[in-house]
Amino acid sequence: MGLFDFVKDIGHKLFSSDADAAEKITAHILANNPGIENLGIIYKDGQATVIGTTRSAEAAQKAVLMAGNIKGVSEVVAKIDIVDDGGTGVDATAALEPQNVEYYLIQSGDSLSKIAKKYYGNGNDYPKIFEANREVIKDPDLIFPGQKIRIPLP
C-alpha cells in the first residue's frame, strides 16, 4: 500500500453519498488547511483527486493524507503543483514520497508511543509524530487501525 492507497472502509465518515463527497472532503481539508491554495476535489467511485497549489511538499503530503483517511476513499490522485519561492515547479512525485519521510499504516494495538519506539528507539518521542500529522491526528490518544500517517525519519 503506497501513499496514494487507503483503506476505504476505515476513517472519518464525512459523506453519505458520492454526490456530496467532493464538497465535504474539500471542507474537511480547508478546515485545517496545511497550506494548499486553490483547493479542489473531484470524487468518483472511491477515488479522490486533490487539486491545488502549494509551496510546501509537506502541505501536499498532508492534504493527500487528509483526503485518504476519510471513510469511502480508497485512492487519492494528487494533482498538486508544488512551487518553490522562485515560482519554479518541483517534482511532485519526489516531493510526495521523499526519503526523509515514511508513511505508516496504523495497526490494531498501535499507539503513537509504540510507533515512536519502533522508529526512534524512544516512545517518549511520540510528539514528533503527532506534530508531523497535526492536521491528520487531532488527539495523540485517538488513532485508529487503517489510518495512514507521516513518520519523519531521523
TrEMBL record:
<dbReference type="InterPro" id="IPR036779">
    <property type="entry name" value="LysM_dom_sf"/>
</dbReference>
<dbReference type="Pfam" id="PF01476">
    <property type="entry name" value="LysM"/>
</dbReference>
<dbReference type="InterPro" id="IPR052196">
    <property type="entry name" value="Bact_Kbp"/>
</dbReference>
<feature type="domain" description="LysM">
    <location>
        <begin position="102"/>
        <end position="151"/>
    </location>
</feature>
<dbReference type="InterPro" id="IPR007055">
    <property type="entry name" value="BON_dom"/>
</dbReference>
<feature type="domain" description="BON">
    <location>
        <begin position="17"/>
        <end position="84"/>
    </location>
</feature>
<dbReference type="Pfam" id="PF04972">
    <property type="entry name" value="BON"/>
</dbReference>
<dbReference type="InterPro" id="IPR018392">
    <property type="entry name" value="LysM"/>
</dbReference>
<protein>
    <submittedName>
        <fullName>Peptidoglycan-binding lysin domain protein</fullName>
    </submittedName>
</protein>
